[in-house]
Amino acid sequence: MRLFAILAVLGVLGVGGAVSANGVQVWAPAGWHRVAPAGDGPVTDPRTLLVIGTPGVRPHRTQCQIAAYRIPPAGAVVVIVGWKGANGDTGLGTKELARLTNVKRGIGECFKGRSASATVVLGQREYQVSVMVGDRASKKRIAEALDVARSFNLKR
Question: 2-154 has which fold?
């Protein structure tokens, strides 16, 4: 809750704000922006709902739905995909987002860099919130990316 209060104040001060699409939203610091989805290719479920990144992040065609973005060495991106339903999962809520505290190599499918992800069920739908950072991303940039991911919620 404290994070949301801090991010709301920053938004009021012009330092960042809400970014939303397709019924979901995150709070992002100044300089972060919506990125055009790379496309879901043959995947029909889940669908990419929102992509937000630092300057220089851009989509690039690949067979991978989540890791379909070029990330500058010092940059970061947050990708949110959503399924049509909850896939049998219940009760996850947003508590899984609190576990997004660091990024590690080798856990992102199709992404060799540092990443993290969490599964969330809200409104009877399952979502995956993924963070990917460039090889030279600073601790501050990584913290920003994780804060953006933890702020995920349905658009009110």
Answer: Jelly Rolls (2.60.120)
